[in-house]
Amino acid sequence: MRAAALDRRVKKEARALVREARAALHLKSGLVGKAGDLEQVTNEVDKALGAEDLAGVRRGLPALDSLVDELVKRAPKSTTRDYVESIGAAVLIALALRAFVIEAFKIPSSSMYPTLEIGDHIFVNKFIYGIRIPWTSTKFFQLRDPKRGEVIVFMQPCEPDRDYIKRVVATEGQTLEVRCNVIYVDGQAVKNELVDGECTYDDYDEINKKWFTRQCSRYRETVADLAYETFHDADRPIRDERQISNHGLLSGDPKDFPRLDGARIAPSCSTNPDGEALVASNQKRGKLAELHPGQVAENACEPQLHYVVPEGHVFVMGDNRANSNDSRYWGSVPVENIKGKALFIWLSYSHWSLSDWSGIRFDRIGNFVH
Question: Which DSSP string do the residues of 269-324 spell out, in sequence order?
Fold first, then answer.
């Protein structure tokens, strides 16, 4: 029984090899390998099969198998092809990660000091706020909405081709007001405390291509369990002292928002005072509302006129409060414009070249963005 089964197996394998060899000879005749002439060996095995000469089949099968394996099998890939395919796969994986999961950004301005400095290179989590169709603002999946205190990268609503990075200070439906540099969200002051009243930082002049020093005051803000530091102008501590000694300022503060003087118009791309008036198709204009209509506040530093963040939007501000172009000027950011949440700094330098590594800020590399 075992012998009969083995014979059938040999004949089956021989027929398969003959068919494969005939197909190869049909495409190209005269194939010769180390085991001989493919056509001759094929004919011999085929003739033995037809005559039920199992001994002849067994004699010719090794040579036929060797020729088919040598001449008919798919040619091995070259080393160059292996490299090209590996590189191509790596590029596709990198593009997919960049489009849907993580992307690198470089910080171009001082608007987020001290959290992020000019020349910081960061990774951004693009998955957390939703998967976006590349090169569009359309999302087809969203894990969660942005939260207060998070640092986000987004398409600037007035200029969608430009990416900005700011901190979320209020979300949809919340009210926001800044009086004497204190942020009030839903009428509650964001906890803040003075850290350094005489700080400095290096800023970069894009026109003259030079670094220069700015004076500042440094404060720490706390939102829920998240603490982060902010920069203000150098005179803020003096104004704070005057407010305490005078029990409030009658004229308010130059950094107040919304402003009480002039036309009371909610900020938007179409009313941007610091640039060209533009229309953002997906930006909703927030509303201004008086806390006590018809009444004049005794203390100009108290909440009195607040901004209501529109549905589907967030209000953002730079941590460098005295030097940031943000929602105070051009309005809230549509959630669909948000690209992702800042993760950590993977590289940081003020200047760098192969011969000069002195500008690399090694102490910042690897720091998480809070």
Answer: GGG-TTS-----TTPPP-EEEESSTT---SSTTS--EEEEPPTTEEEEE-SBTTS-
φ/ψ of residue 118, rounded to 5? -60, 130
Token pair belonging to 19? 């068919």
CA distance 175 to 51: 96
Between CA 122 and CA 106 the distance in angstroms is 6
Kindly report the number of other CB atoms within 10 A of residue 295's CB atom: 9
d(CA 76, CA 74): 6
User: What is the value of pTM for the model shown?
Assistant: 0.74
Q: Are 61 and 10 in contact (CB under 8 A)?
A: yes
Residue 114: is the preceding peptide bond cis (ω within 30°)?
yes
Relative to beta strand 32-33, strand 226-232 is unpaired
Query: For 34-62, b where at least 16 C-beta lie within 10 A, e where not — what string?
Result: ebeebbebbebbbebbeeeeeeebeebbe
CA 197 distance to own-chain centroid = 35
Structure tokens at 12: 């089956």
| Distance, CA of 48 to CA of 15 (rounded, Å) | 11
What does the pLDDT look like over 262-314, one tens digit per residue? 788 999 998 876 666 677 789 999 999 998 887 777 788 889 999 999 999 99
